[in-house]
Amino acid sequence: MNATQRRRLLLNRAILILSTVAAVIGLVFLFWILTTLLIKGLDSIHWRIFTHDLVEKGLRNLIVGQMILAGVASLIGVPLGLLAGIYLREYGLNSAFARFIRNLSDVMMSAPSIVIGVFIYGILVAPVGGFNGWAGSVALAIMMIPIVVSTTDSMLSLVPQELREAGIALGASKAQVILTIVLKAAKIGLVTGILLAFARVVGETAPLLFTSANNDYFTLNMNQQFPSLTVSIYQLATFPDKPSQDLAWAGSVILTALVLLINLTTRYIFRKRKSK
Amino acid sequence: MFNRLFRLSSYTAALLVLVILAGIFGVLYYYARDAIHDFGFWHFITTSTWEVGEDDEGGVFGGLIPILGTLFSTGIAMLFAVPIAMGIAVFLTEIATEKLKAPVGIAIELLAAIPSIIYGMWGLFYFGPMLQRLFGGQSNSLLTAGLVLGIMVIPFMAAISRDAINTTPAVLKESAYAMGATRFEVVKDVIFPYAKRGIIGSMVLSLGRALGETMAVAFVIGGVFRFPHSLTQPTISIPVLLANNFAEAGDLELSAMFYMALILFGISFITITIAKFFFLKDQK
Description:
Chain A has about 280 residues and is mainly alpha-helical.
């Protein structure tokens, strides 16, 4: 072996080791976070936090509130995102307008979530005169739209062109083809996209801080300040007393479990389809 | 009839994306106009005072410190995250055995889905105090904020880069190996050039996330209006300024907050647009 070869092999070795070390460092940090969360969280979870509201040191109203905020956001954001995605793939395709909207939607996906909160404050809080649940849901809906647009766009692109042509040949209108054939063929992909969008916004805090704010009491009235698990975690964690911090950890582990459960479910649905 | 109605409503929904984006700029500008009028642009971004006047009326507001805090914390995050995320991506595609690939890959993807507030809390209670023991200074500091941000974007960046690297055709790699290339040479001269667009794209998306991230930073940056003379001192970023002070702000201060939000949105908009134009334009 000459010197050049030896140098190449040595460099190769060094880089491979460095790369493995980098991977190990990254994984160590990430597992440190997860184990801390599990230990602190499971330690602080008791049955009573599911049956009491924040005012009595429980999380019941917050969990229900967070789900309602994200649920209503889905009712607003999902249909709009689906429709826009359908337009991009089925009508606009590669037209200048469709490409423009596609790019804008990607930019919107990267918009800072706190800016969306400030925007909604400007149109749904300041004019009304107070924080309210609707504002929180609309802020989350705005975060969902670009995610649903992008998954719809790419899922519909996987539907074979022949299916559409067959529908047209049978005399169906374009709307009928889309609604009864294309959407059906892409169903599983669309559902997973929607679930992932839900999982993404259900853990958001920043857009809720000054839209729906928070509420210590149980409420289903979206015209008033609305209870939020994430906003409460933010407030509780910065309190100096241990019971508040424990409650924050309990909330965090519940939130993370929910988000990971949705992610694992979508993974399962997707795998099942592939194996069929 | 229904056919046309359906087309029209889907067109309207697509147009809504444009309307919302334009609406964000418009509304932020509308509320910020008092501050823009009073402080101008250059003056605002080069002033480091943020002081409410007597009786909560007026005051002097400048965005220099939060702007620097945002840029510095994002910079530290990227310096820390890029090498580690690339290491993980290369490890997952070229080094790990088949048995390791799937579980580690899934773990990384799940970690990317964890809400950012969790990273912030961990930084506040565990990582910050550890950094303080190691480097001195304060537990909540620019350094803690940057590193927590970096750790937060690592799984996201690694997962996208791995997918990009996986698109490299096996034939290309095999021909390089057949010529006697080492594994590092294959990564450097075959895989990176081929997957360049996707890899840079993953960095840009992570950069965008780090710039606008609120919760992971809010816990650990300290939130004080002060220029950090060393990495271990606390400061503030634009999202954290908004998260902490927005709800209690008086008239002119609120206008200055909207101005800050407008600037943050502008920075993120320009970053993503430039990146899309230069690196991602050939994507479908």
